[in-house]
Amino acid sequence: MSTSFAHAGKRIADRFELTELMDPQAFTDAARSWVARDTALSVQVRAIVIDPDSPMRDAAIDAARRTAFIHTGHDADPNTVAIMSVIADEDASDFALITEVPPGRVLSSFLDGTPVDPETVRALLGEVASAVNSLRHHGIRHLCLTTDDIYLTDAGQIIVDGYGIRAALAGKDMSRPSGELDREEAIGLTVLLAAVLLGRPVPELGELDVETELFVEAHDLADLPQPLVDIFDHELSGEGAVSPDDLMLRLVPWGELDLARFPVNPSKTDASVASADSVEEFLGLDDTDNELSQVQWPKLGRSEADADTDGADDADADDAEANETDIAIEPADTRVPTKKPAFGGWRSRAQGLPPGVGNPPPPSLPAGLGYPPPPSLPPAPKSPPSPTAPFASETSLASDASAIPATQVAPEIPAEFGAPPPPSVAPDNNWGGILGSDKPAKKKKSPRRPILPDLEREPRENETKVDATKITIVLLILVVLIGGWFGIRGLFKPFDDVEVTTPELYGNDNGVAPVVVSIELIEPDGADQLNTPEGVELIIDGDPDTWWNSYDYSAESGATDGFGFYVQLERLSTVSAVELTLWGTGGNIQLRETVKEEPTGGNLLAQSAGSTTTTLTPADSFVAEGFVIWITDLPVTPEGLYQFYTAELVVY
Questions:
Q1: Residue 235 to residues 124, 231, 450, Cα–Cα distance (Å)
Q2: How far apart (Å, rounded) are the C-alpha atoms in residues 588 and 600?
Q3: Of 166, 177, 185, nearest in space to 67 by CA
């Protein structure tokens, strides 16, 4: 396989640029982890680059896509590292998984080879087992869990890395039966439990069997809680946990995770990036081969080198001001900026500079140079004014006399001519007064409307007046009387007979059995969700070959806090009996008339021990839209397990 499929400065999908190689001890032969920069968003991400020649390439890409689908769903697990992009480019030979940088610090940095507080390890493994079990229901497996795959945040949150991807890169066969994969996952968690208790990393794959000295050494630790002792005893005797949820039940209850109880408190500096010597040693490169491109990160503000250069430019400007008196008039400022400040745009040289420093003022031109003055206008020709032409008012002439040339001022009119008459304008397009006609225009008079005397007309003989107000009042009175009559008549009218229709009930009374539409798993308030709700609908599917079973409560007795089912009917029905088909005997099963919010409340209608066919028959039939089947003690299966196995539920 190739050893040069990734290098610093390489861009994957023309977006993610590799910058630094991460811890070589976390690498495999098929993939390497890099710190990369998302050039589109300018954020730091992690790139797991897969060797294009690796036989596990396609399996790793497929596992990453299935894991990424879980992250983008509504039930995304907060204890996982989010996969942001899966890249599989055959043409460019780019195969990479882009994830967020794992938050927190890796678990192996908290260990120094000395034993760790057992209660702290118990809380840690309980959270890890819960996270692994959560994704197990979605078909996502880890199977290669080590102390390098678990990250701890300062808030005490557990982050598990490598879901699906680690198993694919290790060549795990995922087509095996589910029970076999569950057992392998539980063994891996138990190995992690023993290794952390001893303060050591998980051994390499293939170096550890179930019955090894690691379990024995962890079992013999002092002050080990009894649940942890039992876990190692069962593993050494061949009766270990069969699945992650089984191991989780053996760890409950656990307390809060306290990072201060670990023997090592690593610094907050990120130590996941490998040094240059370790990278060269891992890749087998010498100094001549290690010519990696340098990535320039954007700078926010001015660097010290830019500040020093700007200071030198300001000093040059001060020298130019001192010598300005000895320099003749320059045609223009020929200086141009020689550099660009970092990430802040051009700096204005006119701001914050001493007086006199900057661009010089524009030079004045010598006498005789420049544009010639505009030519003067020739004088207007003399012409005698027309005696009939209109004249301006004296005020306007007086105000504009200084602006009018002497050749354009109107001559004085002799006194014998008198003042000229004002022009008359006629409305009938007769412009004679303006054009100098001798006959003035006549003004047309509009016809006057005759004024008639305001005399009151006398009524004619036999003519009567109609008063509309009186008619309106009479009509309103009639309407009120008619409405009052109908109101009084309706007040004393006897009531009609009311027919009450009772709702139709389903049940044995009318020969129609109640119809069950849904069933829901319920547990008491405050209890952990120990039973799996998936598959509970198989109880009412009408197929006796399908089963639903609870967890195996491996205790000395079948007593439990209780759980049950809420059965929803199609409509309000009469229920006379409920029949259950079980695999096991004993225990205690109750029929309660209550709601799912209070499963242990309401009326206890019937109860019975479990058998192959268990019938719960109340003393009297009851009418309801739903009821609760509550289990206070678990039946015992033929194999001696305290589990609730049921195939069918029928309502009569």
A1: 20, 6, 129
A2: 14
A3: 166
Exposure on the CB side of residue 425, measured as CA atoms within 13 A? 2
pLDDT at 489: 85
The span from the CA of 452 to the CA of 455, in Å, is 9
DSSP collapsed to 3 states, 326-391:
HCCCCCCCCCCCCCCCCCCCCCCCCCCCCCCCCCCCCCCCCCCCCCCCCCCCCCCCCCCCCCCCCC
Q: What is the pLDDT of residue 459?
A: 55
> Exposed e or buried b for every residue in 88-97, given b needs 16+ CB within 10 A?
beeeeebbbb
Nearest in space to 614 (alpha carbons), one of 594, 644, 593, 642: 644
Which pLDDT tens digit goes with each residue over 43-100? 999 999 999 999 999 999 999 998 888 766 555 677 889 899 999 998 888 999 999 9
Q: Tell me the whole-structure pTM to 2 decimals.
A: 0.44
How sure is the predictor about 466, in pLDDT bands with cuts at 50, 70 and 90? Answer: confident
CA dist 74 and 455 (Å) reads 93
* Six token digits for residue 471: 């008619």
The strand pairing partners of 231, in sequence order, are none
Give backbone dihedrals phi and psi of 148, rounded to 5 degrees, phi first. -85, -5
346 or 484, which is more confident? 484
Query: How many Cα neighbours within 13 Å face the side chain of 314?
Result: 15
Q: How far is the C-alpha of 484 from the C-alpha of 193, rounded, in Å?
A: 92
CB 567 within 8 A of CB 622: no
Is the omega angle on the peptide bond into residue 447 within 30 degrees of 0, that is, cis?
no
List all residues 6 or more positions away from 197 whose beta carbon is below 8 Å from its beta carbon. 115, 116, 118, 121, 218, 221, 224, 228
Helix axes 244-251, 118-136, angle to 10 degrees: 150
Going along the chain from its start, the domains and CATH numbers come out as 1-102+279-291 (3.30.200.20), 103-271 (1.10.510.10), 516-651 (2.60.120.260)
Q: Of 149, 141, 115, 375, which is closest to residue 261 (Cα–Cα)?
A: 115
Q: Is the pLDDT assigned to residue 275 strictly greater than 60? A: no
**What's the chain's length in residues?**
652
Q: Is 4 helix (H, G, I), strand (E, B) or coil?
A: coil
Which of 156, 160, 349, 327 has the alpha carbon at shortest distance from 256?
156
Output the CA–CA distances (angstroms, integers) from residue 276 to 8, 25, 281, 282, 283, in the order listed. 12, 14, 9, 10, 11
The three-state secondary structure class of 575 is: strand
| 165 contacts 64 by C-beta, under 8 angstroms | yes
- Residue 589 scores a pLDDT above 50: yes
144 contacts: CB under 8 Å, gap ≥ 6 = 162, 166, 167, 170, 172, 188, 205
- On whether the CB atoms of residues 651 and 622 are closer than 8 A, the answer is no
| Inter-residue contact 578 to 649 (CB < 8 Å) | yes
Which tens digits make up the pLDDT trace of 414-450?
Answer: 544 444 555 444 444 444 444 444 445 455 555 555 4
Burial class of residue 34 in the structure, from the number of CB atoms within 10 Å of its CB (0-12 exposed, 13-18 middle, 19+ buried): buried
